[in-house]
Prior knowledge:
This protein is α/β, with parallel strands linked by helices. The protein has nine helices and nine strands.
Amino acid sequence: MRAIAELDPERARSLGGLLFDLDDTLLSHGALTRTAYGALWDLRDAGLRLVAVTGRPSGWGEVIARQWPVDGVVTENGAVHIVRDGAGVARRETCDDAERRRRRIRLAQLVEDVRAIVPEARLTDDVDARRSDVTWDIGERTRLPLERVDAIARAIVDAGARTTRSSVHLHATFDADDKASGAVAFLCASSAKTRVGRSRATRSPATAGTTPRASARSTRRSASPTCARTSGGSPCGRASSPGLRWAKASRRSRGRSSPPVDPPPSRR
């Protein structure tokens, strides 16, 4: 990690976008200040693509994607992506609706199990806006002793779920992604969509005149995303526009940014 102050102008100009967290990064004690919101617009006006990456609910992401100057929002610690879609937004997930329903049933049972073990634990006030996880309040509106938080975490693991812990929430999910893998998957999907649009816009007359079957094969070849995902949900490859570089800002850096990283070239 390097401080933003160490980012020289030439290197800063090479950036194509910024990934940023919300709590304790963009937000100050949960509030979006005028200065922070103005900074987003300044970055957008400078030509940077902006993607929020957060553990907050996908319901929040739908509002943010509609009203903020962002390309999209990676929510619920990587599991649910919200992207702009014309005048509205679209939701992207790593499982279909039937599997999502099954996982939500298992989460509901987990909530009951935790209630029997730690009856004083309370779900967060944003839990109804979530799709892929449930969250207990451990420090936002109430303070739960560490040993009781650990008891909930053990119950989550015993149920076969994954758990992550922030300064204010304890999460439980049956999804495999985290913020890092979810952010990479978002960029891969966005890059693939961009390539499809360019391919359609630049098709030669000969391509436009081919049979529908041949044209479909050609489109699939040109649009094939190189970030195929494994059964575990982790990305096994990355694609990006040539020369595109991203910086990230998160709670861990407290106002610092990691050095920009060039994504590996697309597989041919």
